[in-house]
Amino acid sequence: MDYGLRALLSLTSAGTPQTTEQLAEDQGLPPRFLGAILAEMRRGGLVASQRGAEGGYRLARPPTEISCAEVFRALDGPLAEVRGFRPEAARYQGSAEHLQEVWVAVRASLRQVLEHVTLDQIVRGDLPATVKQLTADPDAWTPH
Questions:
Q1: Which region holds residue 27: left if phi is over 0, alpha if psi is between -120 and 50, else beta?
Q2: Which domain holds residue 137?
Q3: pTM for the whole thing?
């Protein structure tokens, strides 16, 4: 997801179609691997490609309309899975009976950030207040 987001952020900043090589160079990414990621994002409706002298990739929609969650889903599938199932489909018994609620909460937490941050906000450095609040906590920066 990181490589995909970085490529999309480069496209957002460029404002014009960019080749795989240009995007890879801009972000220091392996061009061949990035090509496969761009193909996935094209299938996911995030980028469009055009041929010719002015060819390359461009965003399929304005960057104000593309969220991090969409990129995640296009490249990695659902935001949260448990053993290949969505959290609401996971079933537990006995002492693990309430574990499903934890997985649903994890997915809700991811949604709180990823669905509310757009490419445009990242490029402008104008992240939502909820994200700024989370990152303002020094513990957020500390590995556990």
A1: alpha
A2: 2-141
A3: 0.89
Separation CA 21–CA 105 (nearest Å): 40
Residue 95: which CATH number? 1.10.10.10
**Residue 57: strand pairing partners:** 18, 49
Residue 125 CB partners (closer than 8 Å, separation 6+): none
List pLDDT tens digits, range 14-25.
989 999 999 999
Phi, psi of 118 (to 5 degrees): -105, 165
pLDDT at 53 over 80: no
Total domain count, the chain: 1
Q: What is the largest CA-CA distance in the chain?
A: 63
